[in-house]
Specification:
The complex is a heterodimer of chains A (about 300) and B (about 450). Chain A is mainly alpha-helical. Chain A has helices at about 1-15, 15-50, 65-70, 75-105, 110-125, 125-135, 145-150, 155-160, 165-190, 195-205, 210-235, 240-250, 260-270, 275-300. Chain A has 14 helices and no strands. By secondary structure, chain B is α/β, with parallel strands linked by helices. In chain B, strands 4-3-5-17-8 form a five-stranded mixed sheet, with helices on one face. Classes of the chains: A mainly alpha (about 300), B alpha/beta (about 450). The interface of A and B includes residues 46, 163, 251 and 269 of A.
């Protein structure tokens, strides 16, 4: 493993104090590796085992995949998640990069600090809690912005959560909850762009648009790819937003909306853990393939 | 029988899975050694119609929703020597399926089941029997003469293949609630037929716009109106068989009636528990067909209607119909766990909570399923003086619930909410959505393994 390799190397180079340092390094990494195995690798293996067996533990090939794909809710759930992913990834890339660039332009320290703090606050709320905040925001009878909803033609909660509005609503909720952290990360990345590069761009006569488009965004590319990979995996697992909405609306909207909700239904309402495992394995395969594609096309692991 | 099968299968599953679990335990031993206990539990004895776990001393674990918390607390007060471990949970309100989820997980870990559970849904046995959780009650645990005193048909939703697996807590027969002083002030009479009801609704729309004769915005709307109209949307004909027909005359004539009143705005589409209803329509209720628990839960507690206004009348009937029929919305159930190691204490509690006057007669918010307690309950309601007149209509309705609407594993309420409610919000008529509704019921029934006929 690369881990023992490099620590051995460093121990040879720095005989004194090196042994202690490498032990500390191993200890730090070991904590992560144990958690990764316990809560990442083993459950995944367990799910794969379930996906290819039946309730009695006999190997069944792809039959779990076939039966779950034939469920009448499956295609709907796939198209719901796909639509949501398009909305979510587009808004994330455009607005996060845009806002981070804007933030970086603001020279004044106090405003920039205040904005960074504001962007980050929603992310500090736990996922479910911030969704609950939105359930209040979207109900015209209790919403603090009910007049705004009224102007847009929404007078009841039922009208707000009409089926066609859902991908947009979930995107808004997810953006509000999750984007703040990414804006701060992008801002950090922008600060890492060497001053002399920016200086050179200015001397060559580049305006703010040209600097952003030809210098800053290309240099942020790896960060953007990293964000898209994680957001794709997270978005494909859409669950909390529709599930809470379905509870709040007493089942009117958001029931069986996403693939993850469908796995939950299979596992706990239809007593079909194996089918649920099959769908979750599919999600894993899709997310990993998407990540692989992005990594391969962007040269993510190339040295700078 | 089906009851022994799943548990045997589970045991086989558990032993196969144990090898995987052992591997897991070795890796995670640093994190939580305690979590990897086996299921244990050898040495069962067959009694009262099922294999009982070895009996032990210890606290009785009871799961209840917030409303039933009073019952357990009262039991503890009256029986200070019984050790109780009371757990409050959402009682599966609004189809959250918490109990089912937990039992599936307990079945996998082989421990953790509660001894006695209350659920506000009355279709729990459709899965709890297959999951090997619900214990049979009429094979020795509860005496037959106690069971005989429950209201006629009250325990039908608890019966699977002729065996009783739960006890009904309360009945939820639908009646026609109305605001007596307001009706008198407007000079109207309580309608006795659906035809009169519709005429009155149209009249109210013209003469007193804004006032309501009903609500069609709840997920349980079909159970109030279409069930009462004998619409065959949910005819459960066997443990895994259902007949669905939502376009019969019985369904369409009620749907048409509702469409007319919804268009006239004398029937709202908000839902009685929506924030919108409480804020804007709460004091506009003239008539309201609804289940027994509307009296306490909706008028008294949610809408805060003052005392001496609300009264109950029999639900209207179609002109010329000879046998009166009404619908039913829920009505909680109590289940006893097959895995209980405190069966004596659990059975004592179950008997007390469903039949004893101290709770069901005096304190219960809903109409008791146990007939002698229901008598006491009705007397107490009259004495308390919240309602106008007596609630005799509830007693009559308790035996008039149409038996053609069953309780299956799939939730009719969830299907209506997801299929018909969004269309209502968009202004579609119920009549136009009846075929879609049927289509949706059929799909859900089939995916739950039901054989569907039309």
């Amino acid at each position: 493993m690369t881990l023992s390799h490099s620590s051995a190397g460093s121990a040879r180079r720095r005989p004194r104090g090196g042994a202690g340092q490498s032990r500390a390094g191993v200890a730090f990494v070991a904590g992560y590796v144990i958690l990764l195995i316990a809560f990442g690798v083993l459950p995944t293996g367990y799910a794969v085992y379930f996906a290819f067996t039946d309730a009695g533990g006999t190997f069944t090939g792809f039959s779990n995949f076939v039966t779950t794909a034939q469920d009448f809710r499956f295609t709907d759930a796939v198209s719901h998640v796909a639509t949501y992913l398009v909305f979510w990834l587009l808004s994330l890339v455009v607005f996060v990069v845009g806002l981070a660039l804007l933030l970086h332009r603001l020279a004044s320290g106090t405003i920039s600090k205040a904005l960074r703090f504001l962007f980050y606050i929603p992310g500090a709320l736990a996922g479910a809690a911030s969704v609950l905040v939105w359930l209040f925001m979207l109900d015209p009878t209790v919403s603090p912005v009910s007049s705004l909803l009224g102007v847009m033609g929404f007078h009841t909660f039922g009208a707000v959560i009409a089926p066609g509005n859902l991908p947009l609503l979930f995107t808004i909720i997810a953006f509000w909850t999750g984007a703040g952290g990414w804006i701060v990360v992008m801002y950090g990345a922008l600060n890492n762009i060497p001053q002399d590069v920016m200086e050179a761009a200015r001397i060559d006569g580049a305006g703010s648009w040209q600097t952003a488009w030809h210098v800053q965004i290309p240099m942020l590319r790896k960060w953007i790819v990293y964000m898209v990979i994680l957001a794709f995996a997270g978005g494909a697992q859409l669950f909390v937003e529709p599930q809470l909405l379905s509870l709040a609306s007493v089942g009117v909207a958001g029931r069986d909306y996403s693939l993850n909700q469908l796995t939950y239904d299979f596992a706990f309402q239809m007593n079909n853990i194996n089918g649920a495992a099959a769908v979750s394995v599919e999600l894993l395969v899709v997310s990993v393939s998407a990540a692989a594609l992005f990594v391969a096309r962007s040269g993510f692991f190339d040295a700078d | 029988m089906t009851v022994t099968n799943p548990s045997a299968r589970q045991r086989r599953m558990l032993s196969k899975r144990r090898s995987v679990l052992v591997a897991g335990c070795v890796a995670t031993v640093m994190l939580s050694a305690a979590a990897c206990g086996g299921s244990g539990g050898a040495g069962t004895t067959t009694k009262d119609g099922f294999a009982q776990a070895p009996q032990k001393d210890g606290a009785l674990t009871v799961w209840v929703d917030a409303t039933r918390m009073d019952a357990v607390k009262l039991y503890q007060q009256q029986h200070p020597d019984v050790k109780l471990d009371i757990v409050s949970y959402d009682g599966d309100a609004n189809g959250s399926n918490y109990l089912q989820t937990k039992v599936q997980l307990f079945n996998r870990t082989g421990k953790g089941w509660p001894d006695v559970v209350f659920s506000s849904q009355n279709n729990e046995v459709t899965w709890a029997v297959d999951a090997g959780f619900a214990a049979p009650l009429d094979k020795g645990l509860i005496p037959a003469d106690t069971l005989g005193k429950f209201a006629n048909g009250a325990n039908n939703p608890c019966t699977v293949d002729g065996t009783l697996y739960c006890l009904r807590n309360d009945l939820s027969q639908a009646v026609l609630w109305y605001n007596a002083p307001l009706l008198k002030k407007f000079g109207y009479k309580v309608p006795t037929t659906w035809e009169e009801y519709q005429t009155l609704g149209e009249k109210v729309a013209k003469e007193h716009p804004g006032y309501l004769v009903g609500d069609a915005g709840d997920s349980f709307t079909p159970e109030i109106y279409l069930w009462a109209s004998k619409c065959g949307a949910n005819q459960i004909t066997g443990p895994k068989a259902v007949t669905v027909n939502t376009t019969s005359e019985a369904c369409t004539k009620m749907a048409k009636l509702m469409d007319v009143l919804i268009k006239d705005k004398s029937m709202s589409t908000s839902g009685v528990f929506s924030t919108d209803f409480g804020k804007n329509l709460g004091d506009k209720v003239l008539l309201m067909p609804g289940p027994a628990w509307f009296g306490g839960a909706v008028f008294k507690d949610t809408l805060k209607t003052p005392a001496q206004q609300i009264a109950a009348a029999p639900i209207p009937q179609w002109k010329g119909d000879t046998s009166p029929s009404t619908g039913n919305v829920g009505g909680g159930t109590w289940l006893l766990s097959k895995h209980s190691a405190h069966l004596k204490a659990a059975t004592d509690f179950l008997k007390w909570v469903t039949t004893d006057n101290a709770y069901q007669g005096e304190k219960a918010p809903g109409f008791p399923a146990y007939a002698p307690a229901a008598e006491t309950w009705l007397k107490n309601q009259s004495a308390a003086g919240y309602f106008v007149g007596d609630l005799g209509a509830l007693k009559d309705a308790s035996s008039q619930v149409w038996s053609g609407w069953g309780s299956g594993q799939f939730s009719q309420e969830a299907i209506w909410a997801a299929t018909v409610k969004p269309g209502l919000t968009q202004g579609k008529t119920i009549v136009s959505m009846l075929p879609d509704w049927q289509d949706s019921i059929v799909k859900y029934a089939q995916s739950n393994g039901y054989k569907v006929s039309k």
